[in-house]
UniProtKB/TrEMBL annotation:
This is ATP-dependent DNA helicase IV. InterPro entries: DNA_helicase_UvrD/REP, P-loop_NTPase, UvrD-like_ATP-bd. It is an enzyme of class 3 (hydrolase). It comes from Enterococcus durans. Its EC number is 3.6.1.-, 3.6.4.12. It comes from the Bacteria. Pfam families: UvrD-helicase.
Amino acid sequence: MIRNSKKQELQDQVLTLSEQQQQKYFGHLIEDDSPTSIQKYTKQLLRMRYHVVDDQLKDNSWIDEDRFLDHYYTAFTQRPYLKQSTITLDEAVIRLFNRHLFVEKLAIPSLSFLLIDEIQDYTPAQCALLLTLFPRAAFTMVGDENQAIFNSAIPFSEIQKIFETNDRTVKRYDLRMSYRSSGEITKLFSKLVNDETLSIVPVRPAGESPRFICFENERKWLAAITPFMKNENHYTILTKSQTEAAFLEEYFKGQANQRSLSIYSIDIAKGREFDHVILYDISKEKFHTAQDKRILYTMLSRGMESIFVTYKKELSDFFQI
């Protein structure tokens, strides 16, 4: 815009503006017709004429991102792209990828080392984006395939393929020691490990054996767990869903033992640890898929000292091992 304001033909346009146009564009009449002044007015006129285009260039609104996404999705999957009202995580990653590769490079620092925690929760698209953004970084990735509880889960074998496709060597180390949970709790959740050749070794003493409690309704469930809560220990109730957690929060309102309780759904509790844990409704009806198995593994491995596994009517088959 600065360069264009120096062009003689554009400055001539400013000099030929009527008084009415001068008032419209500049708010006053041009009194100083020196070259410096005319260039300033020319720049102001250009800015007014092209401010919409300038704004669109700045925020990339001129790009048809949906068409971009549709083209590459169809080319890769051989299926038409069906746009949803809310974009998925991978769709957001692909849009970012497109902007970085074809529109404007993202301002990314050059890193020598990159540590990624909970790698099992990443998607292939996210891994590919990170490799593109940090081509010279040495990656250290930490995770547990058995805790892949979200829909974005990725097997470690697929991560390795993505890196090797990008000419990166992957060295895998299996950490088998359990430092968080007691021996008895570790023994219980280790039965749910997908890789049967991978044995988890507890470091801590055996401790209390896990308790299994059957219930028919919430009133009987509360009656069953109350005797174990008549001490100074703080108990944490873990649920499979946020809906269950919200229900129990409401259910415990006004209860005398409410202060000695915390209630979390597993997606919130993931990555945390608690001394005394009560698992809510680990029934056959609610825990039966491969993802349910990983959720159960994650719930059990939050406990450090004691675990209470409660279930409605029939216990999940995952414990019939």
